[in-house]
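Example record

Each entry pairs one chain with its bound ligand, 2-acetamido-2-deoxy-beta-D-glucopyranose.
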Amino acid sequence: MATINKPLKPKPLTKLRSPILTLILCISAITLLCLFSSLISTNGFSFSSPKNLPNKPHRQHTTHEKYLYWGSRIDCPGKHCESCEGLGHQESSLRCALEEAMFLNRTFVMPSRMCINPIHNKKGILHQSDKWAESSCVMDTLYDMDLISETVPVILDNSKDWYRVLSTSMRLGARGVAHVEGISRVHIKENSHYSNLLLINRTASPLSWFMECKDRNNRSAIMLPYSFLPTMASQRLRDVADKVIALLGDYDSIHVRRGDKIKTRKDRFGVYRTLHPHLDRDTRPEFIHHKIEKWVPPGRTLFIASNEKTPGFFSPLAGRYKLAYSSNYSGILDPVIENNYQLFMIERLILMGAKTFIKTFKEDDTDLSLTDDPKKNTKSWQLPVYTMDEVE
Ligand SMILES: *[C@@H]1O[C@H](CO)[C@@H](O)[C@H](O)[C@H]1NC(C)=O
Ligand SMILES: *[C@@H]1O[C@H](CO)[C@@H](O)[C@H](O)[C@H]1NC(C)=O
Ligand SMILES: *[C@@H]1O[C@H](CO)[C@@H](O)[C@H](O)[C@H]1NC(C)=O
Ligand SMILES: *[C@@H]1O[C@H](CO)[C@@H](O)[C@H](O)[C@H]1NC(C)=O
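Structure tokens for the complex follow.
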């Protein structure tokens, strides 16, 4: 089975370089994400342009296909059954499940909806009851199933295919389906009892789906890169990102994670501590300026995506760069975006479409980053550092 370490098949990114004179300056509230996960990789990303291939035929399913089902909600059953996590967290879980399907050479049965944490939904859902349908969105408004299927075949759990699999497996009984829990994928693969079954129904870890992929520390066991799902955005989201990218022209980008990541807590002596001691400092405009000046020449257009809520927080950078945010393009984005997960997916595509993309944390050796603090949760609460002295 092929192991994929890089984003798939980079195609050249065509950019519209003609100067755009009219820009819609809609001053709208900067929509921000709280749990903003930046599991993105820059290298080789491209927007494939299936625009030119209208009515791409849907993938044909063969009668030999076998299926893997992990349940109808990402991370559920689990600790997030009531609420749910941010997009990046759920993507880690989904990626883990997709990797298992690849490992077992099975078609993955995707949940047809993704749970949206109410704090990530700006459409007033906090005023409604917290019913599942109201706090979730349709999976294929986020991701392109056909595009995903080119790497790992998927069907949705509200599709005809899935109902056909269910009825066939019921007819076959114990010869059709196995319910597994706490059994490793290696065991399932090597045990002939499982290999012939039409359906494997896994009850994933009650902590989080991605706990099934604890061995991600073993890099050779990783089959899908972090950038996989971000680049699998639905056609509609890719199209709107392409429009903004065309308007931005030649630009660089920074993803500035503050909000959730800079939180502090008091230790038993009343001293504030944080998990990322330099992050608050490194994501302030004066430090960003210091850090990126060697990568981004003055006068460049700089696209900023951030969960910082203070208006004008990054304005000091405007002395050197032409700043742009997704709010600059709300005239294009607002008619398309239904929730903040979709906005985040578009922002990620715009970030990745830049000539130079600087992340908050380094994820790959080749990444440029604002801070040298590790992204991983170190569990070590340290004193925040604000002095410049430590900067090289
Ligand atoms: C994977 O499954 C497909 C059917 O879905 C089958 O044609 C193919 O031979 C299988 N590959 C391996 C390596 O088992
Ligand atoms: C999968 O297994 C769980 C737990 O045993 C069960 O509740 C669920 O109905 C099963 N789903 C399918 C589609 O077999
Ligand atoms: C790492 O993963 C590879 C591929 O799955 C496996 O062959 C190897 O035994 C694993 N190594 C460790 C230390 O777990
Ligand atoms: C984005 O909007 C801000 C505030 O209205 C403005 O200062 C900036 O020039 C705009 N950027 C672009 C690229 O149009």
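The chain has eleven helices and 14 strands.
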